[in-house]
Amino acid sequence: MAEISNQSDIKTRKSPNFKIGVITAIITVIAISTQPIISEKRPDVLYPVIYAIATVLFENILIFPLALKHTLNQRKNPSGQLKFTIKKHWWRFLTVGIVFALSQIMFFYGFDSSGESAAISGSIAMKSSIIFTIIIGWIFLKEKASIIQIIFTAVILVALVYTLTLGSFRVEEMNIGTLVLFLMPLLWTVGHSVTKPILQQGLVKPSQVIFIRTLIGMVLLFSVWLCTYSISDLVLFLDWSNLLYMFLIGLSYVIGHYGWYSSIKHIDLALSSAIQAPQPILTSFFAWWILNEPIKFYHYIGLAVIFTSILIILYDKNRLERKINNKKLATTD
After folding, report:
1. pTM exceeds 0.90
2. Which of 49, 56, 272, 302 could be a cystine partner for 263, CB 3.0 to 4.6 Å?
3. Does 1 fall in a domain?
């Protein structure tokens, strides 16, 4: 049975779809790696709330043609129409819109407040996502975690504390920006957990989820902005330099979000996740090259430990999934 499984894997790796999946995953990790760089390079006048609005606005505009195409295709199947899904699962869309709107502000505020080597420290802080994924998956999605996964999740936590306290393990050394970025992936995980069931059931396409959540996020962020800032700040959207950075961050987000969904459509989740693992390493390189940010000794240690631990966790997840699938095949036979 294992032989059949291995032969199937070899055929999959030779298929055009496999290559598309790998290329898409690589493009995705590059796009995500540039987000902290674009954020740090943007004009100072683009404060976190206005830049968050611009991000969801441009992501919404860029994903709209694809979302429209998928929605028109669904009209051929009445049971798959988007309006029925929204009516039945409205709370899922509202939840994901709220959490991603809030996380967008946290993203820019966090990097703006992360001090020296902000892009590097911030990108490392966000690898707390693996910790929250395992915890939320266990609590809400009933996903089991092995002893190996629990041990190396703890190792990642220790490495994050070491890196974010500047190699001292003294909590007072951690600044507010990196703490915000450490907590932000919790919102991402909640958002993905809420939309996972309707995506798995094929009730909605990834492009539609992205479009709806950015639309909701745009309304919420604009409402907050109107209550706290001056409407005269809309003039910032008329400056070509500002528009360039608004477009770039929106583009990087739409490639990152849709690219992730596209990659796992063609290749294993474990492989796609493994390709995403070096994201903070890529961001660190871009930060050193473009922003002239110094990479400190504790960054090297943190990156090495976190990267290795993530690969071990992903390998173990993949091993257990294969074991379960082989048992199912054996039972069927």
Report:
1. no
2. 272
3. no
Report how far residue 159's alpha carbon sits from residue 79's, in angstroms, rounded to the nearest whole number. 48
88-114 as b/e, with b when 16 or more CB fall inside 10 Å?
ebeebbbbbbbbbbbbbbbbbbbbbbb
pLDDT 10s digits, 71-123? 888 776 655 577 888 888 999 999 999 999 999 999 999 999 988 889 999 99
Residue showing tokens 């961050």: 249
Residue with tokens 């995980």: 189
Distance, CA of 301 to CA of 284 (rounded, Å): 13
Q: What gap in Å lies between CA 21 and CA 263, rounded to an integer?
A: 4
- Closest among 47, 184, 189, 211 to 104, alpha carbons compared: 184
Length of the chain: 333
By CB atoms closer than 10 A (0-12, 13-18, 19+), residue 288 is: middle
Provide the domain count of the chain: 1
Give which of 137, 152, 188, 129 is closest to 311, Cα–Cα. Answer: 152
C-beta atoms surrounding 331 within 10 Å: 7
For residue 161, what are the domain limits? 15-29+43-332
Report yes or no on 267 lying in a domain.
Answer: yes
In the predicted model, what is the mean pLDDT of residues 220-226?
Answer: 93
Residue 175 lies in a domain: yes
The verdict on residue 220 lying in a domain is: yes
Question: Which candidate, 35, 209, 27, places its Cα nearest to that of 118?
Answer: 35
